[in-house]
Write a structure and sequence with these properties.
The structure is a single chain. By secondary structure, this protein is mainly alpha-helical. It has a single domain, classed as Orthogonal Bundle (Hypothetical protein af1432), CATH 1.10.3210.10. The protein has 11 helices and 2 strands. Helix 3 packs across helix 9 and helix 10 crosses helix 11. It is globular. Bound molecules: fe (ii) ion (2 copies). One fe (ii) ion binds next to helix 3.
Amino acid sequence: MSVENPRVTIIVTKPVERVPGGLTPFPILHDTRGYLYERNKVEKSEQARQMFRNAIDSYELRKAMEPQYVKDLLEDAFLQKEDPAMTQALAHSLRVALIVGDIHEYYFSLQSLVLSAQRGAILHDIGKAENPAIPSSVLLKKEKLTPKEFSGIQTHPEVGYQRARSHTSHEPAVALDIKHHHCCQGERSYHERIDDDDMSPEAQRLRILAIGDTIESLLDKDRDYDRKGKVEWSSERIFTELKAKFGKAFPDDLYKFAISAGVAYKDRFTARSKVQAWG
Ligand SMILES: [Fe+2]
Ligand SMILES: [Fe+2]
């Protein structure tokens, strides 16, 4: 028997208040029939759109997503076509922003800095999109990259910066986040490095972005961080990795706090499906 789908409204139950420590539970998605959304059952482009809308509605990123330029740059980069690499990049960027926002609040305690840092994190990888030097197959590649593929990937901070800079003239730190977000990532750093002794607020801001970027990448179930074979990254192992990369830049407490934020957010913005119809 075939049944015509009635119009179904999706309801997002938002967390009412923030849990101490800045970590909030995932908003519960269900529809007017009470069906919970399931993961991995929506089409890819719809996944990305849904994530985008969830970010705009979310408690933590709502304000960071408010400016039109943020929405426009994100849409242009990741929502133009059905592409698993772009969906993954969008989810990654949003989760990095959640982690970075919490670390900033912990470290600087200034709301304006938190918002600007979240925007930098949301947009940090837009240079991976529609970039002729980086085909999606390279972004999704599980094996070690060839030198040519790696040099293609290395273009994304500059490409993203060029795209963003005319939109971010009133918030230049966001463009600089995009341009320099790989400047303090140890042996994975690209062309430039922040001096290990540079403890200026600007350098610390970039390190926090790099910490969020690293933690999210390590915790992503679908990514092989160093393309040497997927391994389980325990909190202890991530802590060791962060200490090796960022060393004395921050106290141990900050690394531990950042990891706990990453663990709390690791399933945020993963795709939630439309209800499977009538079965
Ligand atoms: Fe990047
Ligand atoms: Fe990234």
